[in-house]
Amino acid sequence: MISGRGKILLVLSLLVVYLLLPSRRQHPPHDPTFGLVNETSDSSRFAIATFLTGNHKQSAQQDDLDTDYYYIATRIIAYQLLHAPETRCNMSISFVVLVTSTVSERKRQQLRSDGAIVVEAEDVPLRWWIKTGVTRWKDQFTKLRLFEMTQFDRVLFIDADTLITRPLDGIFNELEVRRPVDTLLGRETQTDEAPLPAQYMFAARSDNALTGERDHSFPPLQTEVFSAGFWIAAPSHEMFAYLLSVMNHYRRFDPHTMEQSLLNYAFRRAGPMPWREIHYKWSATWPSSRDVDGQVVTLHEKFWSTGPQELRNLWWEQKRNMEHYHSSAAEKGR
Prior knowledge:
Largest sheet: 7 strands, mixed
Structural class: alpha/beta
Shape: globular
Strand content: 5-15%
CATH superfamily: Spore Coat Polysaccharide Biosynthesis Protein SpsA, Chain A
Number of helices: 8
Low-confidence stretches: none
Number of strands: 12
Order of helices and strands: HEHEHEEEHEEEEHHEEHEH
């Protein structure tokens, strides 16, 4: 016989299990017009975006213009995309810097002067279980606000610690980018998440961290996981709502790697919206001289502090070029 106390504990245990299990409720009948994505055309609007957060170790009165290397790297990207003859975009493309409230007005104004569109993004509310020991990482989910920027037909996101070697705008002509694909609703669809859009466009590059890091082969191997430092998507309010809904479910993705894990879950290869592999020429993580020789367009590394010396020299050269360009422009304006 089970005692009264035992029955109560049993009921409570069953209730906890029930709450942790995926809901058995059904979505309403699928709407084939829900969250449709347009194929791009000559009149489409494109943006290249990066993300900048403030230095949490400093007060609002301090401004680390010369020591905040993420800010400096963002200025270098603006210079490379908008001004440098060897890397500037040939198409009419906006460069957007998504910033948090901790980025000073002085930095924002400088980025505007450099030609960037500076947008302060509202924090994305996080569930209690999404946390990590790295303070700066807590802001990374703010990048998801790019999915709300539906004034653009496609947005390419690149991390600020990226070096550009040649024009990047040609990526918007890739077939995987121009054409959306239908969501595969019969695949591993979770009914406790927000309804999936009928179409989506999301492409990225395999992460070389899984294929030898700096010693990865060239051409690099494809993997099941992409790097969240370089991806391209069609903004969609329906997609944004879906991504937020995933965070409502305990450890549906590994919180340690933050938004990268969330995006890899949402666009997993075996899921209803598998990510599309963009050509390896567009981006490399853990870059090496082989990637440079292979004419890879963007190299993802904190070159101000790490990476092969040859590539670090290239980054510092671009920093000097950026500073010279703006000082010369200031002299001409006097």
